[in-house]
Amino acid sequence: MTLVHRADDRGVAALTLDSPANRNALSAPLVEELDDALAGCAADPAVRAVLLTHTGNTFCAGADLTAPPDPHALVGLMRRIVALPKPVVARVTGHVRAGGLGLLGACDISAAGPEATFALTESRLGLAPAVISLPLLPRLDPRAAARYYLTGERFDAAEAVRIGLVSLAAASAGSADDVDKALVPVLDGLRRASPQGLAASKELVTATVLETFDRHAEDLIARSAALFASDEAREGMTAFLERRDPAWLV
Fold first, then answer.
1. What is the CATH number of domain 1-173+197-250?
2. pLDDT, tens digit, for every residue of 188-219?
3. Annotated domain spans of the chain
4. Are 117 and 92 contacting, i.e. CB atoms less than 8 angstroms apart?
5. pTM for this entry
């Protein structure tokens, strides 16, 4: 089964996450397919920009707890998005959870619709948003990051814009079509730009994020691995999969 589909339209390659069985969660196969698709876009001179979108009502549910990707592979995927010499634009019309926010944070521009919700739920599982901090912390409002990292609260598209996670939100009473309308001037602007101009401009705005990857990736990968192997995280993930409260709930 193909988990990532590509469709091209006047220089924009749309990559659609299509893994309905696990709500587009980051399984090892999906991470590999998306990484390969992005590499193909980078090598294709006809591609001016990449549009990352999804099927169903979930953009990405985070890591697939039944078949999690290797943390090095996930870091490599996020770094590829950040370092890709072509802009990557996220189109979000559904929910984003945990590791999905890392995927979103790695993108250059993003638009979210009124049905989109966001949450960093790792702390509720005995985990932490470790490797996804690489693209998130350089871009998020620090006080908002502290709140949502710690509490796991859900927030909407307007709040995602306010804290720096999302670039623009469609009308609060709108639909998925309004996300597409909001993206029209963005994609038009990218089509009008020269390939060299886009690549050079992207280098400027991603330099700090790439420095964070190069400086902290190995440490955060080690932290993530240690947390996943802990007894508390095993209890948290088991409780989540069994749809029950974890042992520590007060």
1. 3.90.226.10
2. 999 999 999 999 999 999 999 999 999 999 99
3. 1-173+197-250
4. no
5. 0.96
